[in-house]
Structure formats: structure tokens, C-alpha cells
Design a protein that fits this description.
single chain; mainly alpha; 1 helix; about 0% strand
Length: about 35
């Protein structure tokens, strides 16, 4: 159970990092066209 939970939390961390990268790209695009 703890191994599965650790894997889930790793997936969540990588997802949140990917989301942060996407929002950074969106911010830079918005600034470019502002």
C-alpha cells in the first residue's frame, strides 16, 4: 500500500510540475501578445 501511495504521489508531483510549466508558457505567451 505504501509503495502504491508513493507512486501516486510521484505521479501527482510530476503532473503539478507539468501544469506549472504549462502555466509559465501561457504567461509568457500572454506577455508577448500584451
Amino acid at each position: 500500500l505504501s509503495v502504491r501511495y508513493a507512486r501516486l504521489s510521484d505521479d501527482y508531483v510530476s503532473l503539478s510540475e507539468r501544469y506549472a510549466q504549462l502555466s509559465d508558457d501561457y504567461v509568457s505567451l500572454s506577455e508577448r501578445y500584451a
